[in-house]
Amino acid sequence: xxxxxxxxxxxxxxxxxxxxxxxxxxxxxxxLEGTKKGDSISVNGACLTVEKLTGGTxxxxxxxxxxxxxxxxxxxxxxxxxxxxxxxxxxxxxxxxLTGHIDFKTPLKSFYKKGRDSVIMGFNxxxxxxxxxxQRGSIGVDGLSLTVAELKNGDVRIFLIPHTMENTNLKxxxxxxxxxxxxxxxxxxxxxxxxxxxxxxxxxxxDGE
Length: 209
What we know:
Helices cover about 15% and strands about 40% of the residues. By secondary structure, the protein is α+β, with helices and mostly antiparallel strands.
């Protein structure tokens, strides 16, 4: 589990493939402190397992699903990625809980400054996931916990403060770049509970006939 509070923006040093398995090597500093093989790290919102530590880098394997369903499949050498170590019991949760499982990827539709300090980003949520996104609700963007400022017909707008821009990979983003999105898992859990109740009521009505 992750909190969506990015610890640093790392950089992809290289990607390689062997026997059909892709490996990504990422340069980092802060998140390597105390990190060991087998630990989980969120890379642009995708939960990866540390398999090798060498100096100022760590390596992780990318499954076929990760390559196909996240931006890590197309990210090239030199790309900046958001990094966060997995939460430990007792840690403060400054953002909201994220699983590290990407729901969908989408292009950055708009990205512009408003006034001196504010930046506004926009992207579209596919119809299948719109029911999980609400205005003033939380959403994971490249592993970063953000608040939906405006929502209309699936188009999301988010206001970014200077601290966020300065300390994440968003300062390197441009329109057309692919974003990894994870919707709020609480919304999905509520949907599952309600669906289960509806199924239970339907079975009870059927059995009572």
